[in-house]
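User: Teach me something about this protein's shape.
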Amino acid sequence: MFQLMFVLMIALACPALAFEEVEVSPNDLKGWSPANVRDDAMVELNKNQPLFGDGSLMFATDSITPGQDKADFQLAWQQSLNAIDFPDRTLGNLDNLLFAWYRDSISTTAPHLVPAFKLQFYDDGGTPGNAADDVLGLLVWEPVYNGINPAPSDSWQISDIVEDHFWVYVSQSANGSGVIQNYGASLDDWINNNPQGQAGDPSITLSANTFITGVLIGVGSGWNDAFIGYVDAVQVAFGDNDDTLYNFEVCARFVPNNNPDVIFDNDFECYKY
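Assistant: First, the predicted structure itself:
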């Protein structure tokens, strides 16, 4: 873990490496946005626990009302209704997934809980234009299904998850919706072996051609008690020419348009002209 942290720190300092670093800040979210935020949860970019630069993405829940402790932060790159915007962003082309997470010890929810990493997917069943066999849903990574229990507290952890286990939530399919209760399947398993869940779960068939349409990082619901945690350095790669690391900040480290007249302050509005 510490070796990977060192490698990532060196990588972020070396712009010549393959991935593109994209800085996400309150003034320029670069397509990211809060999603599915319920009454007992929040997500925001703040300075409480920076990893690189001055900020990171904070999640907090208090679970006053059951089922209301949920929040996601989402990047959905699929926007068109009648075409696939990024046809090469498929499950088979996905070759790197990495993110940093932090669980604050003030959290009183179950000790294995940290923000989950979710891949949005869409599969047309090999028949574009025929919605009858379309499948939409989420491939979900959680630490507890990958040997992390309890989760470390009060220190940044960097998880390289592309070879890890993902479970599936089906939001739309001809065979119904809901969780496929198979928590030990890898992305390669979902591509090649069609793993299924328990009796009554929806059954789906994914493939190397299944489109990945976005990513979500999120907490809740049904966690109970309070949680505070942070996320940063989200890397998603579909090959060397489509490899991006999203760095969450509050004040932009890079001067907009190299403008020498920018004045930095300590507020969320970090620069003025």
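Now, about its shape. The domain at 2-272 is CATH 2.60.120.260 (Jelly Rolls). Confidence is low (pLDDT under 50) at residues 12-16, 262-268. If you'd like, I can walk through any region in more detail.
User: That's plenty for now, thanks!
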